[in-house]
Fold this sequence. Notes:
It comes from Rhodococcus koreensis. This protein is α/β, with parallel strands linked by helices and 482 residues long. It has 18 helices and 21 strands.
Amino acid sequence: MDVFAAIDLGASSGRVMLGRVADGVITLDEVARFPNRPMRLGGSLHWDLAGLYRGVLDGLRAAATEAVARGDVLVSIGIDTWAVDYGLLGGDGSLLGMPYHYRDQRTGGVAAGVRSSIPDRELFERNGIAQLPFNTVYQLLAERESGAQRLDVAEQLLMIPDILAYWLSGVRAGEVTNASTTGLLDPVRRDWDRALVARLGLDDRVLPPLVEPGSVIGPVRPDVAEEIGTTDHPPMVVAVGSHDTASAVAAVPAAGPRFAYIASGTWSLVGTELPAPVRTEAVRTAGFTNEAGVDGTTRLLRNVMGMWLVQESMRQWQADGLDVSLQDLLQDAAALTDLGSVIDPDLPVFLPPGDMPARIAAECARTGQRVPDGPAEVIRSVMDSLADAYRRSVQSIVELTGTPIDVVHIVGGGSQNALLCRLTADATGLPVVAGPVEGSALGNVLVQARAAGALSGGLAELRAVVANSFALREFTPSLSRA
């Protein structure tokens, strides 16, 4: 059987999944998992991309070994990661320093500087992207103003998944779903807006040619094939929805067009799928963004801080010596009634790493609400706050598009969180369908399988495969949010 390797990198870990498609059913097996630990260099926060690449190679070797053991052939490899971050390559193709992490503070105040020459409204009319401080465009302007001169000597800019694809295949290309998050793309033409790049004072010579999901980039390099044990059948590297949310949305098991999705992980991406971008002033002021999706679609979505609040809280409690389990805390939190302690997860104070429980307590105190007492109450406050943020986002989608939403699909790690799913159903007043968990990896494999001819059809057909392959859980809204 032909099998497909999905490299799926998140903000805290990476994994390699092996996908199989047979008789209209898709299966996934995790063959490797490795940590993704950002590091501080010279006071700045960076990604350890070399360490991630080592994890990728080890994972691909494990995938190839398992495929051989089953008599299968590893046909192709796809890569999806987070968005906005990039690396710069020198003339010899080498990486000019470790890529910056989007949570690094170097972009502070950059957006305000851009505003003086290009008003927010005009910029949104050009790129359709919500003006978040870590957007690639602001990172590049911060880089230019730093005096480091890496942009002056760079030959090419590649987003994180594109760098990994280049290291595997030797081919430099930019995949469009991740490129759309840079703020430098024309979202209708799905190509670089070179006039905007010039107006921002950036040099478009470093921008790579763009490819759509499903494009074959090329076979792995001979040295890579030897490294991972595939010299007899070198797999192809295939462009998928390299922004992990694009892949996750491609795998949403929706039966019709009137759905909202929540891709729930470190971030929660709350949105809907449209045939074209919507760049109205109402969309901009509501904090929504237009990102490229698979098969020419647009993902109209809003970033909500997500499980980052939980992850940082758990880190703090463990650092304080508390013996806490997230599953136990979620059970305890589910037994509590609504505390009335609802924060806005998107406030800038919650973006950096640090003592999250203290920040949550301070925000509750500042707004005159009950301050959560102990870890279980903090978790309940976060769950109520996320559900309320989801409600506001779904309501905005209906108002902005004029199209009703019939169902909310939660994919990713949050689909396993029964408390969050139940509270979301209650808050939105809509049925919530939870699952599958491995949304990004599934969308990754689906696009590869279609490129190889193992699947056919459009997104509706791909989603039907997902619906046929996994047990989904539905949460019906109740009359009470307690």
